[in-house]
Amino acid sequence: MKKQSKFAALLVLLALLSGSLGACSPFDVGELAGQEDTQQDLVTVGFSQLGSESAWRTANTKSVQDALTTENGFFLLYDNARQLQDQQIKDLRSFISQRVDAIVFCPVEEEGWETVLGEAYEAGVPVIALDRNIATKNQSLLAAFLGEDMRTEGVNAGLWLEKTLQEEGRQDEDIRIAVLEGTEGSSAAEGRSEGFLAIASRNQNWHFAAQADAQFTRAKGREVMKRFLSEFDDIDVVVAQNDEMALGALEAIESAGRLYNEDGRKLILISFDGSREALEAVRDGEIDLDVECNPLSGPALRELIENILSGKSYEKVNYLPEQVFTRENVDEYLDSRAY
Ligand code: GYE
Fold first, then answer.
1. Residue 315 to residues 167, 284, 303, 310, 318: CA-CA distances in angstroms?
2. From atom 5 of ligand 1, which residue's Cα is the shortest distance away?
3. Fewer CB within 10 Å of terminal CB in the chain, N or C?
4. pLDDT band at 2, cuts 50/70/90?
5. If you average pLDDT over residues 111-115, what whole number do you get?
């Protein structure tokens, strides 16, 4: 190597170590090289998963674990908060005190993160919100968000219903809708409600007959749907904000013999996620629409962490690609569905 290029290489190295390259990252890249005392050159990531309420969540956890492996240069600390925000805050604090290089967390709720994220920021630990987002005015508390566009998912559900009712010539008929909502205060539930409402509000014939929190679980979906069925005899559409609740609701609907009304018209069932079991119900004509929510964020997460820690430029808000499934296209996807 010529003297000059040796010097240039040294300068680049020094710049990298001091964090002055890639001014877009406010975090100390020196930490990347500082792990050798503990996990020999691995990047230590603390991952706080919010719980294990659904097949979607299991697939999401696996995707992260498969991407942040030691072979790929990561040492992953994993905690499961079992739907408790307090527990999740404790998990984040424990990651900070262990001096991890980065924190990834799926926020169970949107609100209430300022204090702990402020502590991470003070400690120089970049935090990525995965899957669900947080509500904060202080955008610098998060290094980045990587997840799904819940509002667009809700809009897509509304657009499909609008089109379907038009095709059936029911655009002026009174349509009674029951909603099984996901965890109250979560960005997933809020976003899907907001998006669906945006379309509902321009359809004067859509009426919200019933809505209740069924916590994204199958057992709650079944229980709440059973109650709806006993209280209302004229539900036309059920919007379940995830597959677990839709599958629970379907059990309640079928055991009450209410999948078809007296005129032989099928109750329209809309779901979100696109898990294998729900896609099978789409194929079998039980669920009419499943709006995909993509849990396979691991590879994009890995790249994002690498970019943040090495000071490269990166997008602060990142959405995963998603689509919608109906009986018309579901066969193409069922075979390869791993979750
Ligand atoms: O739809 C659901 C889950 O946050 C996108 O959480 C997520 C939702 C997903 O448990 O199944």
1. 40, 40, 11, 14, 6
2. 188
3. N
4. very low
5. 97
Atom of ligand 1 nearest to the CA of 55: 11
Tell me if 2 is assigned to some domain.
no
Q: Which atom from ligand 1 is nearest to the alpha carbon of 186?
A: 4
pLDDT tens, position by position, 124-138: 999 999 999 999 889
CATH of the domain at 189: 3.40.50.2300
Domain assignment of residue 12, yes or no: no
Residue nearest to atom 8 of ligand 1 (CA): 188
Residue 325 CB–ligand 1 contact under 6 Å = no
